[in-house]
Amino acid sequence: SSGLSDLVWSLGTRPVTLSALAAHLADRGSRLVPGPHPTLEVGFPPAWPADDLPPLVRRNVTLVALEAIRNAVRHARAHVIRIELAPDAASGWALSIADDGRGMPESARHVPPEVETGYGRQNMLARAAEIGASLDWTDLAGGGTVVRLRFQLSGATPRRRWRRRRPADFA
Q1: What backbone phi and psi angles, to 5 degrees, belong to 111?
Q2: pLDDT tens-digit profile of 37-55?
Q3: Rounded distance between C-alpha atoms, residue 86 and residue 150, angstroms
Q4: Under 8 Å between Cβ of 21 and 62
Q5: How many CB atoms lie within 10 A of CB 97?
Q6: CA 112, 149, 140 angle in degrees (round to 5)?
Q7: Higher-confidence position of 165 and 44
């Protein structure tokens, strides 16, 4: 399935640049957006850093983006879905998935992610936290929603959930 291939791609061991990630998101986005409505647009910078992305950053940015695109296709009733990846002065880079659909329902805006009936928002927030990124949802004035992930190319140092005890620790 395409979900499995996305996971395999995001976990791959070969080096991947931000440019390659953008190309992958554009390709997968074009398969997820059925067209002719909604249509998919992309906005990427003319120049890219040459650095390879850490696998954790690649995986989490990919999966947040794909979840946001799937949500726009399923729920927004949009005419256009736009993927943008651009430098961000505050964080390094910003990935935005915007649609011109009906926006988030009022009831969904005030429900904490941990008590929602689905896991999409909760998973997206956890993925952002894992790489030290910020994630927000914004309503657009003319209708629609923007999901914005702000992240560093280097990612964050993952929090250790356990610590190996050494013999000296028992002394």
Answers
A1: -95, 125
A2: 899 999 999 999 998 999 9
A3: 10
A4: yes
A5: 24
A6: 75
A7: 44
Q: Which single residue is written with the structure tokens 């736009």?
A: 82
- Going by C-beta distance under 8 Å and a sequence separation of 6 or more, which residues neighbour residue 82? 40, 41, 42, 43, 96, 97, 98, 99
SS percent in the chain: helix, strand, coil, step 5 = 40, 20, 40
Q: Is 5 left (phi over 0), alpha (psi -120 to 50) or beta?
A: alpha
Q: What angle do CA 111, 116, 118 make, to 5 degrees?
A: 145
Q: Rg (Cα) of the chain, in Å, rounded?
A: 17
Better-predicted residue by pLDDT, 39 or 117: 39
Phi-psi map region of 144: left, alpha, beta (phi>0 left; psi -120 to 50 alpha): left
- Spatial CB neighbours of 10, under 8 Å, sequence gap ≥ 6: 55, 58, 59, 62, 63
Angle, helix 55-75 to helix 120-130, in steps of 10 degrees: 160
* Closest among 8, 151, 125, 113 to 64, alpha carbons compared: 125
